[in-house]
Amino acid sequence: MSATADHAEERTNPAARLGFQPDQVVQEIGYDDDVDQELREAIEEITGQELVDEDYGDVADAVVLWFREDDGDLTDVLVDATTMIDEGAPVWLLTPKTGRDGYVEPSEIGEAAQTAGLSQTKSFNAAKDWTGSRLVTPKASGKR
User: Fold this and answer.
1) DSSP label at 52?
2) I need a surface site. Which of 26, 52, 117, 128 has the fewest CB within 10 A?
3) Tens digits of per-residue pLDDT, 116-132?
4) Looking at the DSSP assignment, which residues form a beta bridge with residue 90?
5) Residue 116 in 3-state DSSP?
6) Contact 75/50 with Cβ under 8 angstroms?
7) What are residue 93's phi and psi, to 5 degrees?
8) What does the alpha-carbon distance between residue 16 and residue 74 come to, in Å, rounded to a whole number?
9) Which residue, 98, 97, 102, is CA-closest to 131?
10) Is beta strand 26-29 parallel, antiparallel or unpaired with respect to 119-127?
11) DSSP assignment, residue 118?
12) How far is CA 43 from the centre of its chain?
């Protein structure tokens, strides 16, 4: 595929912009009828696999976490999500945009991520009603 085609796909497929790759196993947490179906389908199109749910019994390559203000304790949910992935793998935290039901303050996201041992690497416009934050677990240091 040409570089131009790659860039065109990134513009048309939001999952490509997020860095999903073919054959990745992506675990989805917090699914409800308010999630963005277009983004879910785009992730499945790129990975070539259906998203797996919270009951998936193996390690995933990434987590997509839909979280709303009334979904409980964000820190606890993030800690649970990190048990499902390898070190350095991303947790894509998706929260309702400002003014939408379930909006989560950015300061709450930052504090919960830090407490859960995650680093926030970028924020982005994930979908019409959703904002995204890319969170990663620190890679193990080379010290022995």
Assistant:
1) B
2) 128
3) 999 998 888 989 999 99
4) 136
5) coil
6) no
7) -85, 120
8) 26
9) 97
10) unpaired
11) -
12) 11
Q: What was the pLDDT predicted at 12?
A: 63
| Separate counts of helices (H) and strands (E) for the chain | 5, 5
Q: In the structure encoding, which two tokens stand for residue 15, read together?
A: 């999952």
Query: Is 76's pLDDT higher than 60?
Result: yes
Q: Torsions phi, psi of 38, nearest 5?
A: -65, -45
Q: Which residues contact 5 (CB under 8 A, 6 or more apart)?
A: none
104 SS3 class: coil
How far apart are the C-alpha atoms of 54 and 69, rounded to whole Å? Answer: 19
Residue 25's contacts (CB-CB under 8 Å, 6 or more residues apart) are 47, 49, 52, 56, 58, 59, 60, 61, 62
SS3 127: strand
Please give the residue that has the higher pLDDT: either 141 or 18. Answer: 18
User: In b/e form, how buried is each residue of 28-40, taking b as 16+ CB within 10 angstroms?
Assistant: bbbeeeebbeebb
Would you give the DSSP letter of residue 33?
Answer: T
Q: Using DSSP, state whether 107 is helix, strand or coil.
A: helix
Q: Identity (one letter) of the amino acid at 129? A: D
